[in-house]
Input
Amino acid sequence: MIGPMKIYSGRREGERVTVTVDGQPLDPRLDLRDFKAAGFEWGYQGSGPSQLALAILAEHAGPQTALGNYRDFVQSVVAEIETDIWQLTGEDIDQRIAQTTIVPMDLKTLMRKVKGEI
Output
């Protein structure tokens, strides 16, 4: 067990959208990728939801996991949020990552697959 699971929360009040992790503002991680969004968003696929997915995954699982998985996370989680107030736990995120992570194969296995040997 790593420690207490974090809680990610989003709230929309009129035009104002806030997203926190354990009560602190979530870093949008523009250093990893800037989707040119006006801010975080959810409930559809686009720049705001993509920035949110990247930020949640980067904070929770690190930059590499975020960059490799944010597209699936937008589709399967962020775009599906239909409420103005939501919460995700670290455990929720771990489960979603486990369901969507593509495990890269080594070159030898890839070549065998391409040749139809697998």
